[in-house]
């Protein structure tokens, strides 16, 4: 219906009957009460969706975003399923932080998430408000009577859906008297000024922190004939800006990756609004012409406008994601990792705890970092046994000598073990999907084995260094060569553990287990060779005998504990059976 016709109809309603007195108190209570029901229903529905499909969506996001076009569809699909673009953005931040996804890949998903969030508007445009109580009763019954957690979550979804539509009905019934109130009609007409409409939409969305709520209110107004399509479109455009204001505020104080994702969201949405700002009448005509084939009213046209806008913005900006990534990195350049003696976590994020599927990925990334630090400790610990020259730390040569570097990393391992363990305990207190409890137990067991490796290095290997210096005798050439070979083999085991934790590759875990047996046989041969040299009364072997044996035993224990970590992963599964090569370890810690 053209805007002039809608205005004429509104004025006809005003003239046909005397305006009834309006109770502004009850109108305000009804409007905000309905909005509260709407938002609560969305939250319940989103929680149910995340519990039901969160793990699957996590896997889809992490594995199917290599291509930007696929990333767009994946972002739309995931957001459509979990009914929350904010939750999708949170996943993106976590995956980029955990290096499971590049920042460029996340941009396509952001554009897709904007499309996926419009499905809520499409649903509320259906006139299902009369069945709201039926859905509430059915959802509550399923929740109470369901035998499994998945069935209970389906009840939550239906219950939330019903609450959402009940809120819509409450707002719709409350607004009916406004159809005959000239002041409100004039105010709605004022929203056809694009700048006023955009400002109103952005402010309201920032206030309620939900673009779906803003769109829902516009649809309610349209259902009551209180707003035209030309007035509704600017409000929807403003809602797209308002929702990224919320994300930008939420990114304050977070990691650089989170700020980049939030900035990308702002640039895409504000850029899209600027592209459409001066073409609103033409855009409204396009939406109206599409809807005319299906006999849709203004409410459906508003929902379609929301969807078409986000699809258009996604397709326009998608080819330029590489440029946007470079521009955003220029605006927010990488900060060097904090160096020094102070231990910190890189990946753990307390705000993600409520989404266990994602939080467990972050814990895994932090454990992989822990394995990398252990590898550095292990490599450095061997140097004093084969060289008398003073050595400096591999990463911080200006600040630390070799032994200080090992001790500093031992402090980091102790700190990380405590932080990761507490993080996992906090995750365990959340509602968990099937298998997540086992995953937490798996990571706890891995932490125990890693702690034992650190103890072997600090309490068994390091005390041997001053003993070796005290006797002032080198190992025999054969003994030194064997120790170095075995040390290199165990170092490779720790590197495989780090790669295994990064990729969750079960084939790597199987390789660690097989190598453990082979290396144990090599250890037995080494002992025999050393004892033979002792029987031959080789001077160096006799002098270094206790140190040589203790060092061999310590290296063998590290090999055993590495295999225990791999065994834990194989026992609990949840990995991939591909043999993907992991990226090179970063230089900083």
Q: What does this protein structure show overall?
A:
Residues 1-19 and 577-588 have low confidence and may be disordered. The protein is built from 24 helices and no strands. It is an all-alpha fold and 589 residues long. Helix 13 (256-276) packs across helix 15, helix 18 packs antiparallel against helix 19 and helix 21 runs antiparallel to helix 22. The relative contact order is 0.08. The chain has 2 domains: 3-14 and 23-331, no CATH class; 350-572, Methane Monooxygenase Hydroxylase, Chain G, domain 1 (Up-down Bundle).
Main sheet characteristics: none
Tally the beta strands: 0
Put simply, the count of helices is 24
Structural class based on helices, strands and sheet pairing: mainly alpha
Content of β-strand: under 5%
**What order do the helices and strands follow?**
HHHHHHHHHHHHHHHHHHHHHHHH
Average pLDDT, rounded to a whole number, is: 81
Whole-number total of structural domains = 2
Which stretches are poorly predicted, pLDDT < 50 over at least 5 residues? 1-19, 577-588
The 3D shape can be described as elongated
* Alpha carbon gap, first and last residue: 63 Å
